[in-house]
Amino acid sequence: EIIEADGQVLLPGFVDLHTHLREPGREDTETIESGSAAAALGGFTAVFAMANTNPVADSVVVTDHVWRRGQEVGLVDVHPVGAVTVGLAGKQLAEMGTMAAGVGAVRMFSDDGHCVDDPLLMRRALEYASSLGVLIAQHAEEPRLTVGAVAHEGPTAAKLGLAGWPRAAEESIVARDALLARDANTRVHICHASTAGTVELVKWAKGQGISITAEVTPHHLLLDDSRLQTYDAVNKVNPPLREAADVAALRAGLADGVIDCVATDHAPHAEQDKCCEFAVARPGMLGLETALSIVVETMVAPGLLDWRGVARVLSERPAEIVGLPDQGRPIDVGEPANLVLVDPDASWTVTSKDLASISANTPYESMTLPARVTATFLRGRVTAQAGQVRKRD
Ligand code: DOR
Ligand code: ZN
Ligand code: ZN
Q: In sequence order, what DSSP letters do the residues of 19-62 get, joined into one string?
């Protein structure tokens, strides 16, 4: 079989540290199978499936199931993320060691949708994770500031009267966990950085020699709070869309390496959970199938990253952060061929009904975006080509 690659760009397969696949529990919105298809079409060869499923991924039974099901589907390596606590925002640490030792080999833990709001519990979690050699990913959303907050800080949201999530909810946890990681001599990873202040804090912490890494989502690189004017709940996401100045700071932070990588926070939701008032709609946006195009639009087109930089933020750095041995490395003789072929000159118009995801909550509907994945290879096997998933024979 010959794949035409004239004028195309070959990159290491993308690694997404932040994906919600909704299995087990909400298979009406996404399954490991449908999410794996979306991932392969988006150029990913590894994704990290977040822990806020039902049941929560706080035991080896759930984490091993997620890994095994992903391998059965065979389109992308689905690495389970374990919950830090028993139940989301629980008060007791989950048995991380057992999950790390399972076939799912959990290497990242989070308390998705909540931060570990007790600083002492967080400190103990960091020390426990450090002794196991695993990573804690912090969603940075202080619940006492997010629940009942008056408004997003942006003038647009405030004017619209939308309840929201002030900057301090994110930044106070970023600052807290940077200091806890310093004192416990451990690593911490910051999920979906969304404010200029978070970029400053991460930069400061790195300057102090603290082992901190951070990700930014494609939507926070492209969209700002002016989108809220329509009251369309497709734009509701945690953390919220911020101001244009935040978007600029996130792009600059990603360009200069303060922000390490791009992670999608792919968050499928059912139609009925998105068609209602802003206040009651579920937060989250689809991201896997559009991630590369958004990175090209926001970073490559304005000259902030070259293709080497795209490989760094979508593949090499995320693989390094979680220590995946066979992903994200520069391509060399004898290495597993986890690759993605990209047409840099293509453009396409997003249509939710053509996406592989079961859900339709893309904020990019009808937008024409640059660059397209032409083929994805997982250990040498084609998993997606010309917009079609290729299942194992
Ligand atoms: O908007 C979000 N939705 N952000 C998250 O991190 C969680 C996600 C979800 O699970 O829907
Ligand atoms: Zn989150
Ligand atoms: Zn998330």
A: E---TTT-TTT--HHHHHHHHHHTTEEEEEE-S-SSS-S-SHHH
Q: What is the pLDDT of residue 301?
A: 98
Confidence of residue 113 (pLDDT cuts 50, 70, 90): low
Handedness of CA 342, 344, 345, 349 (dihedral sign): positive
Mean pLDDT of 290-314: 98
Whether omega for the bond prior to residue 302 falls within 30 degrees of 0, making it cis, is no
Ligand 3 centre and the CA of 20: distance in Å? 6
Query: Do 17 and 328 meet the contact criterion of CB atoms below 8 Å apart?
Result: no
Nearest Cα residue to atom 4 of ligand 1 = 238
Q: Distance of CA 25 to CAs 20, 28, 221, Å?
A: 12, 9, 30
pLDDT at 242 exceeding the cut of 50: yes
Residues with CB under 6 A from ligand 1: 20, 52, 112-113, 139, 237-238, 265, 267, 282-284
> Is the ipTM here above 0.90?
yes
In this predicted model, what pLDDT tens digit does every residue of 43-63 receive, in sequence order? 999 999 999 999 999 999 999
CA of 18 to the centre of ligand 1 (A): 10
> For the residues 365-384, what does the mean pLDDT come to?
97
Helix 244-255 vs helix 196-207: crossing angle, to nearest 10: 30
* The pLDDT value given to residue 150: 43
Best probe residue, ligand 1, of 52, 190, 217 (max atoms within 8 Å of C-beta): 52
What single-letter DSSP state applies at residue 280? T
Q: Which residues contact 163 (CB under 8 A, 6 or more apart)?
A: 148, 149, 150, 151, 279
Q: How far is the CA of 6 from the centre of ligand 1 (A)?
A: 38
| This model's pTM is above 0.95 | yes
Side chain identity at residue 176, one-letter code: R
Q: Which residues are catalytic?
A: 265
Structure tokens at 150: 């008056």
* Whether 348 contacts 23, CB under 8 Å: no
Locate the ligand 1 atom nearest the alpha carbon of residue 238 and give its number.
Answer: 1
CB 120 within 8 A of CB 94: no
Ligand nearest to the CA of 114: 2
Determine the distance separating the centroid of ligand 2 and the alpha carbon of 257, expressed in angstroms.
Answer: 21
